[in-house]
């Protein structure tokens, strides 16, 4: 029977003299040293961690999450060191020592290992999908592919900061609605489970016919009281069922298409996608990457299944000899402005300049779209609140009016 694998913490020196630290899985300390030597690293210290190797999923459960701000800081340091002329291997070693988050530190160490043994930077980053998004990895790929990593890192840092600002704006816009909805849900359950049943007993004793709002409220009360476990199981099952469905090929496509067509939200999503498309496409074109190769990278970067299908259709038409503007004009989810700007840029021979202007325009449009969504949420909440309050008012006061009529008629 083979020995059980354990995790070993190591300190090693690479060919450039940079000290790297990290973890490695092996059956013994000697096997760990040999594995490090095979990666081109000279181990100076190998220490076994207590206990056998846990499953990766179990380990991830206890890992400290990497925040968006930490990713932005990591990217800024990466850009600064790269633009200063530091080699990738040495750069990753410096980032590893500067990073405080243990999860990000371990990921940086693993990336450094893969790169030092001949792996590409793109594949190394892609092996940590819990930390680095498809956008991040695809931008790294674009930098490696085009040979303009400095420009790509500048744009990547800008994109991350801009998206972080949009995230914060959306969170701020949704903070008040969340409070209102939570309060409304609490009031709904309180009225449904305590207030309405108390009044219902009074109405039944008065022997009056209950109106439909009251009967509906009592039916909901009965369902919650007697079948709460079934409702909970159905809600949990639906939640995980939808999550599973979204991960399927058709589910991803339909979900992406739904996001693009939703009122308010759809405009924010579409403007964000157009901004990404224009920004990354401009970098690739300025770096001399062919349009076909650019579309492959963009398909991964946009991370939207509906757009991925459109990119596939556009690539087929490009292979038949058409330019980018004509097949783009038949795409469903590209805005008319994007189509026209690309057509003008392609015709004038300055496509990358047009794309840069387009990216700047859509960066502003995203902020406007978020503002419009924020302004629209208030009236929608008022309507929902009025509907709930009106429903319970009818459920309680309509029978009371009937009782008043009976009392008046009995005099």
UniProtKB/TrEMBL annotation:
Keyword Nuclease: no
GO BP field: protein secretion by the type II secretion system
Gene3D superfamilies documented for this protein: Type II secretion system (T2SS), domain F
Membrane topology: Multi-pass membrane protein
Location of the protein in the cell: Cell inner membrane
TM stretches of this protein: 179-196, 227-246, 258-284, 376-401
Pfam families assigned: T2SSF
Type II secretion system protein GspF domain ranges (all copies): 74-197, 277-399
Name by which UniProt lists this protein: Type IV pilus assembly protein PilC
Lineage: Bacteria, Pseudomonadati, Thermodesulfobacteriota, Desulfovibrionia, Desulfovibrionales
């Amino acid at each position: 029977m083979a020995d059980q694998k354990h995790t070993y913490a190591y300190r090693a020196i690479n060919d450039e003299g940079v000290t790297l630290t990290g973890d490695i899985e092996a059956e013994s300390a000697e096997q760990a040293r040999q594995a490090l030597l095979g990666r081109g690293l000279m181990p100076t210290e190998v220490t076994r961690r207590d206990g056998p190797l846990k499953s990766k999923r179990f380990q991830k459960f206890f890992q400290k999450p990497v925040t968006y701000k930490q990713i932005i800081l990591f990217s800024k340091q990466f850009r600064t060191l790269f633009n200063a002329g530091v080699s990738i291997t040495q750069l990753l070693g410096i980032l590893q020592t500067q990073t405080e988050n243990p999860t990000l530190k371990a990921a940086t160490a693993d990336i450094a290992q893969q790169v030092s043994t001949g792996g590409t930077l793109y594949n190394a980053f892609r092996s940590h999908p819990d930390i680095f998004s498809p956008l991040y990895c695809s931008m790294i790929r674009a930098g490696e592919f085009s040979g303009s990593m400095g420009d790509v890192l500048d744009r990547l840092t800008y994109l991350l900061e801009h998206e972080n600002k949009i995230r914060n704006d959306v969170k701020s816009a949704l903070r008040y609605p969340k409070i209102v909805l939570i309060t409304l849900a609490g009031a709904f359950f309180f009225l449904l489970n305590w207030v309405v049943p108390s009044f219902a007993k009074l109405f039944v004793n008065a022997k009056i016919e209950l109106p439909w709002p009251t009967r509906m409220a009592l039916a909901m009360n009965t369902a919650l009281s007697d079948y709460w476990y079934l409702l909970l199981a159905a809600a949990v099952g639906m939640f995980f069922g939808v999550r599973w469905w979204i991960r399927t090929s058709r589910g991803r496509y339909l979900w992406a298409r739904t996001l693009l067509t939703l009122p308010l939200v759809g405009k924010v999503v579409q403007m964000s996608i157009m901004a990404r498309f224009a920004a990354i496409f401009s970098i690739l074109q300025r770096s001399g990457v062919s349009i076909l190769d650019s579309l492959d990278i963009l398909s991964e970067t946009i991370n939207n299944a509906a757009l991925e299908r459109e990119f596939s259709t556009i690539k087929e038409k490009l292979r038949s000899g058409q330019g980018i503007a004509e097949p783009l004009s038949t795409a469903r989810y590209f805005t008319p402005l994007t189509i026209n700007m690309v057509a003008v840029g392609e015709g004038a021979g300055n496509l990358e300049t047009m794309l840069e202007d387009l990216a700047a325009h859509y960066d502003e449009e995203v902020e406007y779209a978020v503002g419009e969504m924020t302004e629209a949420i208030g009236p929608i909440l008022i309507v929902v609140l009025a509907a709930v309050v009106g429903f319970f008012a009818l459920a309680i006061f309509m029978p009371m009016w009937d009782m008043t009529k009976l009392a008046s008629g009995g005099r």
